[in-house]
Amino acid sequence: xxxxxxxxxxALGTVVVGSAVTAGGxxxxxxxxxxxxxxxxxxxxxxxxxxxxTAAITRGDLVDEESVDGKLTxxxxxxxxxxxxxxxxxxxxxxxxIRRGKSFYSVDRRPRVLMYGKLPAYRTLEDGVKxxxxxxxxxxxxxxxxxxxxxTVDSRFTDATARAVRRWQKKNGMERNGKVTTADVVFLPxxxxxxxxxxxxxxxxxxxxxxxxITATDRLVRINLDADKQDLAKKxxxxxxxxxxxxxxxxxxxxxxxxxxVTKGSDNQEKGATVEVEIKVAAKSLGSLDEAPVTxxxxxxxxxxxxxxxxxxxxxxxxxxxxxxxxxxxxxxxxPVQTGAFGNGRVEVSGPGLAEGMKVTVSGR
Length: 365
Description:
The protein is mainly beta. It has helices spanning 3-22, 133-144, 159-171; strands spanning 27-28, 46-49, 53-56, 58-74, 78-81, 86-90, 97-98, 103-107, 110-116, 185-188, 192-197, 204-205, 210-215, 219-226, 238-243, 248-256, 261-264, 270-281, 292-310, 315-316, 322-328, 331-343, 346-350, 359-362. This is Efflux RND transporter periplasmic adaptor subunit.
């Protein structure tokens, strides 16, 4: 065999071996050479028999999610403190919802009533006070409660306002003096829920003394998300909340902290930075438990109406990229694919000739 032929044989041998490696054993090839004037042609490679497990190519939505532990609680917690001293004579039950016109608690049988408004009570409202938005706020509540007959809702405290106050005081068993003090009302934007009572009926209290811890009535989930995953939490984005009993409900991100907090372990060493994320839960049937553990599923990536295979079906190709083995009539052939989204153990694939229902080999089964 002359030198040129030897080089050709070596080159061809390299091609055949390379094809066998590239196919990972998919194709078997043989080359027969003759030192005579003519060489025999190598036969066409054939697909190998299938001995691995198989799975189907499916079409559907693919969602990649990050699961984060959290707690189901209530929004906007705060404390109601006493505005006068005396003996606690009534308290609401923990978990009770207090609405406009209802009493938070009583001191010496004098109730302190919830009225709606954003401006806190800061002075005694009576005939002769300077006009102001707090007067208008009081008159709106008197009208809503049905006591403001003849009252013009404005910023002036008039004789008509005083008469409306006395009607309201009579209804609540209060002294009918036509005055509303900071010990009589608490102005808050909306109804609230009693989270905890800090005193007991019969306790002697002074002012200011924490009486009640309250929250909004909206259910809320709080999670501490690793700062480097903050891109998963965008205000307004929907998430799935999984309850301890396995029930799944839909929530929506309502707030993402702007400042990360550094967390520390029991050894006082820094563990990393997290951002607090609040999620409002729309479901009505979540029960009344506070601080209940939940799992929040945040969507990292979503691909709709795509072809997918199990991740175990992917094969790394020597030339780079990935491929899969298509099973057809008991034999497998390898084809390159483009990968996309990952989620729930599956991966999006695309490429010429792929179709739903095709079988692919799966390793590790």
